[in-house]
Amino acid sequence: MSDRAKLLIIGVSGTVLAVVLALVLLGGDGDSDTPEVVTKQGNLDPPGRVIAPGQAASVVMETSEGSFTIELDTDAAPKTTNSFAYLVEEGFYDGLGFHRIVPDFVIQGGDPLGDGTGGPGFKTVEKPPADLTYEPGVVAMARAGDERPGTSGSQFFVVTGAGGASLPPDYALVGRVSDGLDVVEEIGALGAADEQPTRTVVIERATLQTG
Fold this sequence. Notes:
By secondary structure, this protein is an alpha+beta fold. It is 12% helix and 28% strand. It has a single domain (3-48, 55-210), classed as Cyclophilin (Beta Barrel). The radius of gyration is 16 Å and the shape is globular.
């Protein structure tokens, strides 16, 4: 498996019991323009029904670098998109950062701990479509290496370049960026050789829109 593919096999720690909120100012230079990243541990219950299979729905991600919109594929991935919508409605993503950025591959966020190990306190399992390919703009969920294909918590990635083609269809589908792909690409350019962001990028607010 390629190094890029290994990026998305995240170690997710399982059910997290306590709820702790802490504000962490990244950058360390006292610059008031540096976005603030919220870290938290989740103990959310599994979601009830938020959106119906086939329902038109999208999520607007307002970030410190601009906004982009994810059109949820509620037909092909009804369980995964419902879980994603639930997390958005709970405000779970608000304040979290993109903790891993690999140019020409992916931007990855949604980790409440910011170190690749966090989750919401529950798992969703939905096998992705067998013909799924991870083209630029596709949004999918990260999973731990010992989890079944299609397992997800809260960590998600957006494909930004040709590197996504190397991934097998093992990562639960969320949807596709329908607006603001230029913003995603700008975020995708902020990755260093160690896959860490060169500048703090924060999801300031995520909003669910339904048709």
